[in-house]
What we know:
- By secondary structure, the chain is an alpha+beta fold.
- The protein has 4 domains: 4-103, Rossmann fold; 132-201, Dna Ligase, domain 1 (2-Layer Sandwich); 207-444, 2-Layer Sandwich (D-amino Acid Aminotransferase, Chain A, domain 1), CATH 3.30.470; 450-491.
- Helices cover 39% and strands 24% of the residues.
- It contains 18 helices and 22 strands.
- It has helices at 11-24, 40-44, 63-73, 89-98, 107-114, 116-125, 141-151, 177-192, 249-265, 296-303, 307-315, 395-408, 418-425, 428-431, 439-442, 450-473, 475-482, 487-500; strands spanning 4-7, 27-33, 47-52, 77-79, 101-102, 155-159, 168-171, 197-201, 207-215, 221-233, 236-242, 270-279, 282-289, 332-339, 341-342, 348-349, 352-353, 356-358, 365-369, 376-377, 384-392, 410-412.
- The strands form 6 sheets. It has an 8-stranded antiparallel beta sheet, sandwiched between helices. Strands 3-2-1-4-5 form a 5-stranded parallel beta sheet. Strands 7-6-8 form a 3-stranded antiparallel beta sheet.
- Helix 4 (89-98) packs antiparallel against helix 5, helix 16 runs antiparallel to helix 17 (475-482) and helix 16 packs antiparallel against helix 18 (487-500).
- The longest helix has 24 residues, at 450-473.
- Ligand MV4 is lined by residues 131, 156, 163-165, 168, 200-203, 206, 208, 232, 235, 277, 286-287, 437.
Amino acid sequence: MFQKILIANRGEIALRVLRTCREMGIKTVAVYSEPDRTALHVRLADQAVCIGPAAPRESYLNIAKVIDAARSTGAQAIHPGYGFLSEREAFSAACEEAGIVFIGPPPSAIRAMGDKISARQKMIAAGVPVVPGIAEPLADVAVAEREAARIGYPVMLKATAGGGGKGIRIVERKEDLLGAFTTASGEALSSFGDGRLYLEKYLVAPRHIEVQVLADAHGNCVHFGERECSIQRRHQKLVEETPSVVVDAEMRRKMGAVAVQAAQSIGYRNAGTIEMLWSQGEFYFLEMNTRLQVEHPITEMVCGVDLVREQLRVACGEPLGYGQEAIQRHGHAIEVRINAEDPEHGFVPSTGTIQNLRLPGGPWVRVDSALYRGMKVGLDYDSMLAKVIVWGHDRPQAIARMERALMELHIGGVRTGAPLALRVLRSKEFQRGETDTRFLERVALPPASDRFLEVAAIATAVHKHLSGQRRSLGAQGEQSGGDAMPAWLLMGRRDGMRRWS
Ligand code: MV4
């Protein structure tokens, strides 16, 4: 096993990786940007290297600086986390070239899945079901019209270089095709430097179900079942759960076999996720994420596996050492992402200083977060502040536990999406398992608890008031305002909690 690795990331995922390393006796090197010098991943790592200013391009995304930091500290391997350099073919290749192990897939596997049309072609060749559509980029609008007529409307135009939500358009009728083609192609060109498009049958309100796989360097590959991630807004997932209510043991076996086939067909190594669209009892390959994902903890909870540990083992060449039959699932897990965002202003990122912090705890509740009181939440990086993950014997127990955990959560100083998540959990539709990718557009959610919003508004007002006071009082005010929240504010909150239950 490695003696020392570098973690090329920040926030909760850097801590997540660091924690497993510590349990395995592996030394850790953190990298950080200037504004992150007081971040928890820096404080908890064995060593830390500053790699530049806030701008990701000049720090967390800078391949040369990250490789240099690994070299100068003697790290044998680099864990990229998610985002940043995790799915850059050039980074996987640069590690290889520097004689450092990339804790991720080989460059060829990243390339195979990075281009969506190439991925589609490879999956068709491997016998993996894909959404009906075409397997070549569209030469022009005339070809698009002909193919759309053959597939049948509605269709979806997608950027071959895409992924996420950019460069995609739903086209309901022939008359709309030209306009959609022009705007999607332009958007793809400006976002990815590649304006090529392809076409698929549009599945109306499918479920987003993904399968976790793990492959070693010896040709062994297993899956850890599915996660349903249908509840999202603007391609940002909000609630994830496993199992999916529509996947039974037989369906799981089928989807798992397809996911393993997909990974093996491209010579995959590492943990990875096969994203699928599920509609009316059928599932189709959508994309593969060649990294550890944000929502991996729910799989860990239900399967009793440490996926980071497994990544480290396969990266250093160990064989899996177990087969599919060894993977057993128990109970139900749910994750809610807590983002700094302002629900009253179209969910724009919310900024501020974390004034007061109460994270949930208790039985079967896990909080993955790099938050601390006094932390500044700005616009430089991702707005995700925390992930709350719960486990229950069954879905109703997991839902009740998550509701309880979210009621304990209090993050003072910024607005968060927690009230929205509570409304989702309390909706009849969610409780009945009626989830799909249009859930938040389609479902009239129960109103937010008045107390929740009221208390949040009071907290914000008090923080504004106190920070104004601190400025005028100087050092003395700083001291008195530093540690404790005003008692009446905390009491208001407790009162609020009584009223919700
Ligand atoms: C689709 C689709 C329906 N039919 N493809 C959106 C992002 C991109 N990565 C794939 N996406 C979709 N592709 C066909 N043929 C619906 C979506 C989609 C979606 C997929 C997964 C999770 C959330 C979504 C939200 C809206 C649309």
